[in-house]
């Protein structure tokens, strides 16, 4: 398809003449069939909802086709409308657009749906089993058409994948405002998502899928590397201060979990990651993200022993069920240093977790046709998995929950994961690592995309970021110097680790000072022509301020407010009027529908003074909103971080907590007969 044909296709939106029906491509990794949850009356409604995108003259053909999709897949994806052009991020100048900001959004959307990046590209799902950019291909086509028409005096409003329309606004307003899954709280159970998504009225945007900010597994490689490195440091002793020879075991090689083997290599450990889906494992092997594939435990176990003994830096994938792997490791008493799990247990009944004893194909069939039995199998599998993990931790393994609802769902299954006082036996990685070491100080996943598509532009940004961090480190206080060191090492090694999949993107962890100064350096380089096109700034929602999630991002908030979502909502509102190009807020993401509220942003910088103003105003809020909240929760690192920011930033005044004496509180309650020794 020529560039002109591509642009005409974008401008056309939903075509006047229906394209030919497309065959189901069995070579592509597809979403599993969703369970049959709608009543006959609701199925009628689902069809009417889908047909409202099309002129009446097409309804006779499409009604039958959509009814068949609903029957076969549990959803209406409108496969016929899938474009004929290749789906990938193009240089920004190739998009038909009336403003550069809209073209940048189009680039990011196409990157999210690139088959090299997306988990189930034909179902518009980027990662996590259900993290969707749109619900169907009509929504994609209509959104791209609106973006091609948008001016700087309009804003596109997106309701769970549906383009509500272009509305008059002004240049300082966001160009796009996105909401995903924002349902009434009493309708936020997993089956509510199944029903509302099947009706075509709501979707699960995960975090960066539905906010157009996913950059492939690189985004999670960095966070996983930081986590594994610091988890390994917890295993260091007087005689062991090197990660080499350590064994790290986990599961999942999908859109997010696929980062684990690459992170293991960067961290210098032996990693073994189980993956039940052969296509997902093969994809990561072909991309160079995992070194070896093993299908038999009798072959894998001796290989593990060999690699550990030789202190190799190597990553292995076990193409099979992780429970079989854990049980074999426990039975053979193989010492495991680090353990975790990255199956999508926020989505346990619809493809996020596959029970032991069933093949991948048999599991997909059972989850659609016998959901009750499938649920029982999942819960039995979780009990077995935890039993094996417990045996290995009793022998010294450090196990951490990776914020995927593993401990939560395991506890609901009756697995032995609770300890004294009903608390989880194992920490969340946020509780032990990310929260107190990074989020409390404002460090989080700052990312950017070079819209030129040129690797040399990305190399320039890498160098600029490293220079900024080096300069900050010279006067940094001791409590953040280690974080800076890890990220300087990361950004200097990023290019040689071949982390780019899809767009020319990068990520590192930086605090407010670092993010602002790096962004300003990029903006100057664009103005000077050293970077040849605008840069999109963003972040993962998994950050200091963006997400309220009691089992992950805010699991180290201990003042009782971990169940509130004021921070995430305030974050998005504040970003919107301080200069973000687009903002998004989602229900769900990482730990499950109904378990988290999370928000994100994208910002296009173009070398202008206006972009510089937006950088300074928006990034300051985007980070310090969360630090201020964590400070008020009495997190000591956050108190120190917000004090430093108040010294640095005129006009910033934050309410600081007064720390009560615990002995005094206990005595006061004891006098009233209301305190226990476990307070």
Termini separation comes to 68 Å
Assign the structural class, choosing from mainly alpha, mainly beta, alpha/beta, alpha+beta, or little secondary structure.
alpha/beta
Shape: globular
Mean pLDDT: 94
Radius of gyration: 25 Å
The CATH first-level class of the largest domain comes to Alpha Beta
Number of domains: 3
What CATH architecture label of the largest domain applies? 3-Layer(aba) Sandwich
EC number: 4.2.1.49
Pfam families: Urocanase (PF01175), Urocanase_C (PF17392), Urocanase_N (PF17391)
Enzyme class: lyase
Domain Urocanase Rossmann-like: 216-433
Summarize the structure.
The protein is an alpha/beta fold.
Protein described:
With 679 residues, the protein is an alpha/beta fold. The protein has 3 domains: 3-199, Urocanase superfamily (Urocanase fold, 3-Layer(aba) Sandwich), CATH 3.40.1770.10; 243-427, Urocanase like domains (Rossmann fold), CATH 3.40.50.10730; 436-662, Urocanase fold, CATH 3.40.1770.10. It is 43% helix and 12% strand. The chain is built from 22 helices and 17 strands. The chain has helices at 3-12, 40-51, 59-73, 100-113, 137-149, 190-199, 218-233, 260-267, 278-286, 297-309, 322-331, 360-369, 371-394, 406-412, 429-437, 455-473, 478-493, 512-528, 566-578, 609-632, 636-648, 662-671; strands at residues 125-127, 131-132, 154-159, 162-168, 176-180, 247-251, 270-275, 292-294, 314-319, 338-339, 398-399, 444-450, 505-510, 535-539, 547-548, 582-587, 597-605. Strands 3, 4, 5, 12, 13, 14, 15, 16 and 17 form a 9-stranded mixed sheet that branches. Strands 8-9-7-6-10-11 form a 6-stranded parallel sheet, sandwiched between helices. α2 (40-51) packs across α3 and α16 (455-473) packs across α18 (512-528). It is globular. It starts with a helix and ends in an 8-residue tail after the last helix. The model has no long low-confidence stretch (mean pLDDT 94). GO terms for molecular function: urocanate hydratase activity. Its main location: cytoplasm. Residues 438-643 form the Urocanase C-terminal domain.
